[in-house]
Amino acid sequence: MTMLPLADLFQAVSDPTRLRILALLARMELSVGEVAQLLDQSQPRVSRHVRILADAGIVERRKEGSWVFLAIAYSSRTGPLLQLLDAWTDERTRAVFEEDSVRLDAVRADRAEAAGRYFAAQADIWDSIRSLHVSEAEVEAAIERALGRPSLGTLVDIGTGTGRMIELFGPRASEAIGIDRSSDMLRLARVKLETAGVRSSLRQGDMYALPLADSVADCAIIHQVLHYAHAPADAIAEAARVLAPGGTLLVIDFAAHDREELRARDAHLRLGFADEVMAGWFAAAGLEVHGVEHLKGGELTVTLWRGVKSAERKRKAA
């Protein structure tokens, strides 16, 4: 490291392979293996270049099972650098970038095929649940009403699954982050969001230990996830932790019911939630209930609970 950190930063990008990696990641998140495939280089060699970019704070690495995914680091730091590189890119270099970009189509096709297989395997289970409650269109319209405001700021979708919430509401966010434990689900979400043209940051993580700092989100959604949770109160508290004061948490799940077969058939740990129970968990997490809506019309009732993080709790914690 030199006495001028800025010089180290520019040295990190002063390599043809690393410039190609940045150009690819500016278009979409990729695994290390996918980058190696696109650049026709060995994975160890690509990993060395990635480590240099990561040490410089330009690229983030996120482990998902046996895969490591790469993404451009937070835009507040990297945005001006990428703009500078784009402004100084000459025609010959741009031609190389475009050739690499064309090969991205093969990666997208591979992802789509894998996602299609996974979706087909899960489709019967999802359809059996959907048949028990009001239509997805009605639920999504209610979510739209509950979110209300046109600009969502930084949106975090906890248990993002197929990425549907980000597909719908990501365009209204300055940054959309999807978190899920399942690497299969994240791959499915990537395909869906890339096809829809919605930019997002997808990360593998646990709802009880979100890979985010305190108070970074303006809006968080937990959509049809809590009935799989062994500790729903802890998941709500963790969501509240990453919310900024005044931020909104929207929980969408089933009202309390007695369909015991869902435990064995579909791995539900909780048979829905009563309003007073959810309100207690919200209060314990420093959230004020600002709205509850019940969507009836099926064997199960879908409920939306909306909470807002108290600024007073943040001051006490400080």
Descriptive report:
The model is unreliable at about 315-318 (pLDDT under 50). The protein has helices spanning about 5-15, 15-25, 30-40, 45-55, 75-85, 90-130, 135-145, 165-170, 185-195, 230-240, 260-265, 275-285, 310-315; strands at about 30, 60-65, 65-70, 155-160, 175-180, 200-205, 215-225, 245-255, 285-295, 300-310. The protein folds into 2 domains: about 5-105, Winged helix-like DNA-binding domain superfamily/Winged helix DNA-binding domain (Arc Repressor Mutant, subunit A), CATH 1.10.10; about 130-315, Vaccinia Virus protein VP39 (Rossmann fold), CATH 3.40.50. Strands 6-5-4-7-8-10-9 form a 7-stranded mixed sheet, sandwiched between helices. By secondary structure, it is α/β, with parallel strands linked by helices.
Total of helices = 13
Measured on Cα atoms, how large is the radius of gyration? Answer: 21 Å
Percent of residues in helices comes to 40-55%
Structural class by SSE content: alpha/beta
What is the number of E strands?
A: 10
Give the overall shape: globular
- For CATH, the homologous superfamily of the largest domain is named as Vaccinia Virus protein VP39
| Helix and strand element order | HHEHHEEHHHEHEHEEHEHHEEH
- CATH architecture classification name of the largest domain: 3-Layer(aba) Sandwich
CATH topology of the largest domain: Rossmann fold
Overall pLDDT, averaged?
88
- Order the strands across the largest sheet as they lie in space: 6-5-4-7-8-10-9
